[in-house]
Amino acid sequence: MTATLMESGAVVERTDVRRPGMAAVLRSEWLKLTTVRSTWWTLAATFVLGAGLTVLLCWANADWLASPDADESPGSFVTWGMMIAQITAVVLGALVVTTEYGTGMIRTTFAAVPARGRVLAAKSLVVVALLFVVGTVTALVGYVGGNYFLDREGIGLALEGDVLRAMYGSGLYLAGIGLFTVAVGFLLRHTAGTISIVLALMLILGNMVNLVPGEFGEWLTKLMPGNAGSAISTPVSFNPNLLEPWTGFAVFGLETAVLLLLAWVMVRRRDA
C-alpha cells in the first residue's frame, strides 16, 4: 500500500504501509462478532430452540413412538429442534454482513482492508467456525435430554452411526446456512431482505415445490438448499424422498459456493 505525504511542498511517496494480513483481518472480524450483544442473544436462542425443542418433542412423543401405531422413527425426533434453530443461523449470518452496510461502517472496513475478498473470507470463516461449534454442542445436548425420555420407553438411540453423524451434521448444516446467508448478505446489503429471502428459500419454497408435478418437481424438491442440506442433520429424515445425507450436503455446498463466488465478484465491483 502506498501513502502520499506533503513535506515542504514536495510530494513524498511512502511504500512502508502494510496491508493487513489474513490473520489480522480474522482477529478483527472475530472481535466484531463477539463484542456485540446481538451475537450472544442469537447463539442463546440457537441453543434454546435447538436443544430445548428437541427435548420437549421427545418428551411429548415418547409414548406414541413406543406404540405399535407410530409411523415415525425416534431418529426423526432427536434433532428436531435443529430445524427451528436454523432460523437463528440465518439471523447471525445476515447481521455479520448487513449491519456494517446499514451503519456505513463497511466503508471503514474496506478502507482498512482494501482487499475486499479478504473481508468476505474472514467474515465467512468466523461465522462457519462459531456456528459449527454451537450447532454441534446444541445437537448433543438435545440428544442427551431427548434420548432420556426415549430410553424410558425402551426406544433410546445409541450415539453411533447415523445418530453420531447427525450430531456433527447439525453443526455442519448450521455453519452452511450461516455461510449461505453471508453470501446473500453481501449481495443484497440489507438485513430484512437477506433474512426474508434466505428463510423463504430454506423453509417455505422448499416445501412449496412439492406441489410441482412429475419428475421435475421431485428433483426440484431434492435440490432446494434447505432440503438438500438438512438431511445431514437428522438420523432419519421426515421426507424419505430427499437426497442421501452426504450427497445432499455436497449439493448444498455447491449452491453456497456459487453464491459466494457471485458475492466476491459483486463486492469487488460495487461501491461500498
TrEMBL record:
The chain crosses the membrane at residues 40-62, 77-97, 125-146, 166-188, 195-213, 246-267. It comes from the Bacteria. Coiled coil: none annotated. The keyword Transmembrane applies. This is ABC transporter permease subunit. Keywords: Membrane, Transmembrane, Transmembrane helix.
